[in-house]
């Protein structure tokens, strides 16, 4: 087998208005290597798109290839494809164990690439403002790591379609946008994917690349719900979004079986949405701070949704549709709101509350549902009793059970409505000026 080994370093200066280095490399064979180092502005690694040659990527076709690009300056561009030829549509030769490493220091830089093959590893690092980074992988056991630090208004996107893929995006700064898609509906082999997006700063978003439509369409949700930052179609997926700062937005959409969605936000004025359509899913939202809003929607069987809130003026909305759903919520703070809606039979919801002037609303339709609310004051951060909290429970169906327990507190209100037959409501309250109203029809 013919093999090529290429070490390529380009330091070209072309007499344009601005200095511009250009590197265009195509390799066919095994065990190839490319190293490109450029310093300055408006440099390019790849081909400039024209009407005759729309391809803007350097290319490697073969096994165990490696490409390393380093650019320092402003307005640089680097594009690569490995193990796939977009210059010859319909022809996709094998390209396994490829690696791409792109480092860009500066601002208004762009980095992108395609990998079609197995066991590819892609790492893109950008430092500065207004940078763009995107990578697409079609194949098994791919890994994509994108890091954007020390700048504002950066955009990162990673997409995979196959099994055992891992996508990680880390962004530090302001008004950054990160998104990833793993698997598409109608395609096979869409399981065991893992996606993690971490953002530190203000006004960041975990959103879909185009920021518009859902696929498939979701009833009851507008098409501009920040897009979906983490999209996963298939089995055994894991999606994680971590944001630290203020005015951030995050969204996870999982369509398939046994998915896990986790969103953690630390700050204020943050928003998050998790939507799962399928079986055996688990959704967790953790909120620390003030004036944050979280939404969870699960459609299917055996779902579990948990929300943990620490702080004031936060809100959580949980919607579960189908059978045997479980929702657990915990509040530590004041003026928080939790609304849980469960439609179906044999569902369960529980709320643990510590603080004042909080509102808990539970709406359950179907037979054999269970609701438990528990308030307790053990921590010194919120001294005194649990006062002026409001609980509203409406259960429509047979053989439902409601239990409210207030260890101590004043001025709390419990409104329980149970419709149909064989329902049970138990209320244990300690304190003064508390109100309990139970209606059973």
Give an account of the 3D structure.
The strands form two sheets. The chain has a 20-stranded parallel β-sheet that branches. It has a 16-stranded parallel β-sheet with strand order 3-6-8-10-12-14-16-19-21-23-25-27-29-31-33-35, with no helix packed on it. It has strands spanning 22-23, 26-28, 33-39, 44-45, 58-61, 66-74, 77-82, 99-107, 110-116, 121-127, 132-138, 143-152, 155-160, 166-174, 177-182, 194-200, 205-206, 230-233, 238-244, 249-255, 260-268, 271-277, 282-290, 293-299, 304-312, 315-321, 326-332, 337-343, 348-354, 359-365, 370-375, 390-396, 401-406, 413-419, 424-429, 435-440. The protein is built from no helices and 36 strands. Residues 1-19, 48-56 and 208-228 have low confidence and may be disordered. The protein is elongated, with a radius of gyration of 26 Å. The chain is mostly beta strands and 441 residues long.
Q: How is this structure best summarized?
A:
With 441 residues, this protein is mostly beta strands. Helix content is 0%, strand content 53%.
Instruction: Work out the strand percent.
Output: over 45%
Summarize the biggest pleated sheet.
20 strands, parallel
Query: In angstroms, what separates the terminal alpha carbons?
Result: 82 Å
Low-confidence stretches: 1-19, 48-56, 208-228
Helix content: under 10%
- Indicate the structural class: mainly beta
Q: How many strands?
A: 36
Rg over CA atoms: 26 Å
State the shape. elongated
- Mean residue pLDDT: 77
What count of helical segments does DSSP give? 0
